[in-house]
Amino acid sequence: MQVNTDRFLAELHKLREFGAAGVGKGVVRPAYSPADIEARKWLAERMRLAGLTPHFDPVGNLWGLAPVDAGEKSLLLGSHSDSQPEGGWLDGALGVMMALEIARSAREVDGPAVSVVSFQDEEGRFGVTTGSSIWAGTLSLEQADTLTDRDGITFAEARSAMAHLAEGFVAPDRFDGFIECHIEQGPWLYEAGEAAGVVTGIVGIRDMRITLKGQQNHAGTTPMHRRRDAFQALSEFNARLNDRFRNVVTPETVWTIGHVDVQPGAHSIVPGRCVFSMQWRDMDADRLARMETIIRDTATEVADDMAMELSYGPMLGLEPVAMDKDQQAALHAAAQDVAPDRWRSMPSGALHDASNVAALMPAAMLFVPSIDGISHAFEEDTDEADLATGLKVLAEAVSRLRGGG
Fold first, then answer.
1. pLDDT tens per residue across span 353-396
2. Which of 21, 239, 329, 366 might form a disulfide with 181, Cβ 3.0–4.6 angstroms?
3. CATH topology (fold) of 204-317
4. Closest CA to 72 of 42, 112, 30, 119
């Protein structure tokens, strides 16, 4: 199987034209937007021309199904083609177009059966990896249909724009494995000058809202020693938390206060209430639990010390997911063959569709570098030589898994 890197890159650039926006190679192609639907229709036609059977399921996941003999299964490759509200051209789209090129190249030489998928709403307009969650059975369609985006549009309303294309759900037992290629979205490969990363697992996530309630008061007349300033309580919480995590976390552990609502949010009023998000990620479920204990204990201490009322929203989370060892081994061998000593094994700090698919079948992931570690931005990019290397590594791994290498 000889992949055609020029054809792959040309089609990858063509896909970028759907929703092209902003500076450089920016893309605005949120799930179910006109640009997303047009891109999926174009992809469906490319799949048909590659000898695959295009198939839209009820939630807009697009499948390119390889023909197989009775009792035979195909290997599934892919990712997603929707984007963030302001995104880059490679996030997810790279994995879809690599999958298409490998499936087509395999068909051209009567090689292994390879099917392709572009999952819908991986980027979370309505939830977290929505399309693959529904397909994997971790989120029911009935529940999904009630989800709303930031403008109040329901998932049911949004997916109705693709109802004329929809057929039934694809049975998971058509496939015996899944591999997703993706940009790293971080700096490690780029900084090390490495060409590929074989993913060991996808981190677990914990996420909750915390509320600190003090006393709203006049900013000019309330002495500092009399204040019950909710924002100052958040600041103290953050400082103590960072110090207390020091002997618990690893270099791969991350935690983020990403959204803060300070009320009433006026220049001349001491904030009386602060609601903020607290999210943390790690590959170790026990460490995630220890971090939760530290977060809650620290919040309690700060609330007591600064005369705050403390409350929590519901805890949301996903467990860490290990990638399949056999598929990792094939990716290791392929990376060493294509890019000798210029690859590494590494965890994924971001969520991906592979975390859902792993509940149904063996799953693995391959990363290529992100220039300066930038993603979810118009500036997102990867050197085309690294894109070509990633394609060759993935193709070689497929050959090895299917007995051709």
1. 999 999 999 999 999 999 999 999 999 999 999 999 999 999 99
2. 366
3. Alpha-Beta Plaits (3.30.70)
4. 112
CA 154, 160, 161, 167: dihedral to nearest 10 degrees?
Answer: 140
Q: Is 91 annotated as a binding residue?
A: yes
How does pLDDT run across 130-149, given as a tens digit for each residue? 999 999 999 999 999 999 99
Instruction: Assign a CATH topology to domain 5-202+320-403.
Output: Aminopeptidase (3.40.630)
> By C-alpha distance, which of 91, 102, 315, 331 is closest to 205?
315
Distance between CA atoms of 117 and 176, rounded to whole angstroms?
A: 14
The answer to whether 376 is annotated as binding is yes
- Measured between alpha carbons, how far is residue 362 from residues 29, 129, 172 in Å? 30, 18, 12
Which phi and psi (to 5°) does residue 81 adopt?
A: -120, 0
| SS3 state at 227 | coil
Map out the domains of the chain as residue ranges: 5-202+320-403, 204-317
Is 123 annotated as contributing to ligand binding? yes
pLDDT digits (tens, 9 = 90+) for 185-210: 999 999 999 999 999 999 999 999 99
16-25 contacts, C-beta under 8 A, 24 or more apart: 16/89, 16/93, 18/42, 19/83, 21/86, 21/378, 22/86, 22/378, 23/378, 23/379, 24/378, 24/379, 24/381, 25/88, 25/89, 25/378, 25/380, 25/381
